[in-house]
Amino acid sequence: MGASVTSIVYLISKEYIFLTIISFSIAAPLAWLFMTLILAEFDYRTNIPFWLIAAVGVIVVLIAILTVGFQAIRAATANPVDAISSSE
What we know:
The chain contains 3 helices and no strands. The protein has helices at residues 5-39, 50-77, 80-85. Helix 1 packs antiparallel against helix 2. The two termini are 25 Å apart.
């Protein structure tokens, strides 16, 4: 009686993915700036390509989707009666 498993997983995952994207969009430029400043101190330096930062962002979002999705599926398929009876 209620929402389907897919709609519950979507509702829970949507918020976490949104927060993950916001936090990455704040952290990525700061990380690039600090890495550039630190690497500038060395005699043999290398550039940090943009695709590397974008790839890390994709990996972070995928890990968040897998983690939150797995936990949301577990919560959506759990029997509420088991939770109530085990809390005593």
